Amino acid sequence: MTETILTETRGRVGIVTLHRPDALNALNTTLMRELIEALEAFDADEGIGAIVLTGSERAFAAGADIKEMAAISHAEVIARDLFSTWDRLGRIRIPILAAVSGFALGGGCELAMMCDTVFASESAKFGQPEISLGVIPGLGGSQRLTRAVGKATAMDLVLTGRTIDAAEAARLGIVARVLPADSLLEETISVATGIAGRSRPAVIAAKESVNRAFESSLAEGLLFERRAFYGLFATDDRAEGMAAFIEKRPPEFRHR
Ligand code: CO8
């Protein structure tokens, strides 16, 4: 039984819904633990090939829980390494698609950016308002945001704390698709279903290769990609995928 999230499966897609309606899904310690455990459980389940992470229509998440953080001392933040549990999200191997409506602020914006791609409804609002609280982004906002949008725009957002809408977030590269609010979740699940139906070794290799671009030089990234590409020639699914194309039929991947 979870307090702060809801989970369900739709075919081969695992869905996690952030659910603290009274606090605009603010990310407290319980939510962080429950969310990471749910993601890890889906990742370990061979029946699941992709995950959709969403919130409510009003808020994906309005940031770290300020009421919880307000009482914590400097020594406690360090001793507890407050946000280190979030590092486990980076080790999830199957793709995570964020479906964002409403506020994605502070840690909520950072959580969306930790996902593998972000789809947003027209009502979504993104921002890093931590500067107004006397702090800075603490879950990669100064780093992932800068890689996504470049220095000048990252400075603009992090130093002013201003909020941007979904259209601007898409133009800047934070969001991949902007969708009507009433079809956001279904469309995201539909995309996730497509991904979950592909060959799992190829899906994992694709995710690892794109992520490698953030961790390496171009030459190293290209070598990583080439090795991963060659490695996929060892899978039955590669033979099946290419044969199916030539025979003009849908592929039947074995390793999903
Ligand atoms: N923490 C705790 N409670 C929150 C938060 C939050 N981040 N955001 C909203 N709430 C609560 C409100 O206190 C309010 O509760 P109550 O009714 O008991 O007073 C309820 O949610 C509804 O909120 P509002 O009444 O404020 O709703 P409005 O529609 O008037 O305003 C806003 C919505 C603009 C989103 C406003 O709530 C707001 O500004 N929220 C704070 C946004 C913010 O500053 N976020 C950054 C937090 S710091 C952070 O994220 C650091 C990141 C570090 C890494 C995080 C890893 C977890």
Automatic annotation (TrEMBL):
<comment type="similarity">
    <text>Belongs to the enoyl-CoA hydratase/isomerase family.</text>
</comment>
<dbReference type="InterPro" id="IPR014748">
    <property type="entry name" value="Enoyl-CoA_hydra_C"/>
</dbReference>
<protein>
    <submittedName>
        <fullName>Enoyl-CoA hydratase</fullName>
        <ecNumber>4.2.1.17</ecNumber>
    </submittedName>
</protein>
<dbReference type="InterPro" id="IPR029045">
    <property type="entry name" value="ClpP/crotonase-like_dom_sf"/>
</dbReference>
<dbReference type="GO" id="GO:0004300">
    <property type="term" value="F:enoyl-CoA hydratase activity"/>
</dbReference>
<dbReference type="InterPro" id="IPR001753">
    <property type="entry name" value="Enoyl-CoA_hydra/iso"/>
</dbReference>
<dbReference type="Pfam" id="PF00378">
    <property type="entry name" value="ECH_1"/>
</dbReference>
<keyword id="KW-0456">Lyase</keyword>
